[in-house]
Design brief:
With 278 residues, this protein is an alpha/beta fold.
Length: 278
Amino acid sequence: MVNRDVVLAAIPRSGSTLACHLLNQSGNCLAMVEPLDMAAFSTLSGATQRTDYLARFFTDIRAQVKMRGEIPAMILEDETTNTFARTGIRGRKSAIRGTHWVKPSQGFTDNFTLVIKHPNAFSALIGELKNSFSCYALIRNPLAILASWNTLDHPLRDGHAPMAEEFDPGLHQTLAGIDSTSRRQLALLNWYFHKFHNELKAECILKYENVIETNGGELAKISGLSISTGMQLDSHNQNSLYNASYLARISSALLKDDNNACWNFYTKNEVQQLGKRE
């Protein structure tokens, strides 16, 4: 059987780190959270160099698992499955605390599924990566995405995604020409949904809501393995951290944005229902 090298793209705040956590419970699947040296990856010129670099990275990780029995892993604060931790009323800051070498909790066969997640870089490059790797993307109700961005101590709050913009100069130019934060956020949201809709088959685009409703079972589409963690997952689409006035304002703007690519995946009724605070 051929080794399965999987690229996982995502709209930031769509549950991709949670997805990796769940995939690692499925057996014979290793899902890694943003393990690439992006400084080195960013210096590469063109699709061929980037694809070759990533292919070597997959090969190296497989060799480390087989020969060393250890892998480099991101250290997250309090073992959270969220790369942004809550910091009180002001919102969230990064929960990443570095990397270390860890021994996987399970053994792997030679043909285990290896998933590498980088939301912004892989979203920008999904068109070229899909020719060499199995590619999937995670999405989420667009209003929940926007509301979550607004809680972050991150450029997403201002409608910017620096890593995505670095790999897609057209996106950078588009966002730079918009002087309104809310309109810039909507343009960025549209860019993610448009990328996935144009570049990936429908079965390769997974919804956060379906992951939650199936307690991770939806992720079998990626791993090819059933996921049974005994966990009861709860949706965070309605979150007390989300600012009510911002939610009302951005919900109204989103519903008026008829050309946003998010409507290929979600209905306006789904957005309106989410906008009604419980």
